[in-house]
Amino acid sequence: MDTKSRKLNSIFYANSYHPIQAGSIDGTDIVPHDKAIHRAHLCQKLSLYDPHGDSKATMDPYCTVFVGRLNHLTTEQIIHQFMSKYGHIKSLRLVRDIVTGASRGYAFVEYETNREMRHAYMDAHHAIIDDNEIIVDYNRQKLMAGWIPRRLGGGLGGKKESGQLRFGGREKPFRAPLKPIPYEELEKLGIPPPPEGRYLSRNQAPSPPRRENSISDREKDSRRRDSKDRDRDDGNLKNPEDNIEERHHRRNSSHRDDHSRRRSSLERSEERGGHQHDRSSSKKEHGRRSNAETERHSQKRKERDEHSHRRRHSSYED
User: Fold this and answer.
1) Is the CA virtual torsion 299, 300, 304, 307 positive or negative?
2) Is 316 in a helix, a strand, or coil?
3) SS3 43
4) Which residues contact 234 (CB under 8 A, 6 or more apart)?
5) CA–centroid distance for 154 within its chain
6) Residue 104, phi then psi, degrees to nearest 5
7) Residue closest to 65 by CA, chosen among 200, 205, 201, 197
8) Of 206, 217, 11, 13, whose CA–CA distance to 122 is shortest?
9) Angle at the Cα of 310 from the Cα atoms of 306 and 313, rounded to 5 degrees
10) How many angstroms separate the CA atoms of 115 and 112, rounded?
11) ∠ CA(190), CA(121), CA(19), 5° rounding?
12) 213-220 contacts, C-beta under 8 A, 24 or more apart
């Protein structure tokens, strides 16, 4: 594979948003190529857009995913049912037209933890809901520096027919440049240059930003599991007196068990002592019997010897 073919298959993603760069397929444009990009660039320079000014956007951005290309007939209930397979949903907002109330085709889903959000980010992308192939991205409005929304000429993605494609996002990444990179011009405009030598392949997805200096989701999960374990141990008792009685009952049962074990141990030790005493007594009795039998045998032997002596003496006299 030659160098040109390798570059066609090499991509990179934008870490910050610049409207002129977003309008370029390889991230090297230095002039806006349509009026919408010019408008977005003007809004960015004059700080006309405040990403934190939306009073309805109260979700934690590190636990929230953007769901786009929804069927306009898809309801909140359907979205909740589908997206809940990736984790516990804390809140959901389907964006609707302020006048008609009709769905605008995208929503924000907030999960309990960042881990669940990342699960949905990786696995729900290009899933099918109500015959529509959805796209899933992180909350760029809050987490991407310099972000300008589509309604002001910015955004990401788009359709080719509209003539307003925006690159650098998950759906349409930048392609590795085939021409020399104008580093000086990009620096003047504040556009980060392509990361030469650090390109990705097309099957690699960008990682969402991580929260800094915060409690990790592992600790949150551990706390939630500990809370569930405590609730299960308490048996979901509603009356505090029942909890006290339950603890007294457990304590008394423990004392009774300890007393029973001590009694059993003492009885076993006494039995062992009794058996040892019986064995020693039987040995002494056996010893006494043996001595008595020995004395009887010796006495009989003496009597026999005396009798034989008398018989021999009487035969001599005759």
Assistant:
1) positive
2) helix
3) helix
4) 243
5) 35
6) -95, 5
7) 205
8) 206
9) 135
10) 9
11) 20
12) 217/113, 217/114, 217/115, 218/115, 220/112, 220/113
Give the tokens for residue 173: 């990444």
Reported as a single tens digit per residue, the pLDDT across 129-143 is: 999 999 999 999 999
The 10s digit of each residue's pLDDT in 211-263 is 886 555 556 666 666 666 666 666 554 454 545 555 555 655 555 666 566 66
> Can you give the pLDDT at residue 293?
72
CA-based torsion, 272, 275, 279, 281: positive or negative: positive
- In the block, residue with structure tokens 């991509």: 11
For residue 23, report the phi and psi dihedrals to the nearest 5 degrees. -85, 0
Residues 6 or more apart whose CB falls under 8 angstroms from that of 192 comprise 14, 15, 16, 18, 21, 186
| Amino acid at site 219 | E
- Distance, in Å, from the CA atom of 256 to the CA atom of 279, rounded to the nearest integer, reads 35
Q: d(Cα 140, Cα 61) in Å, to the nearest integer?
A: 8
> 90: which 2 tokens?
């804390």
- Output b/e per residue, 111-123; b: 16+ Cβ within 10 A: bbbbebbbbbbee
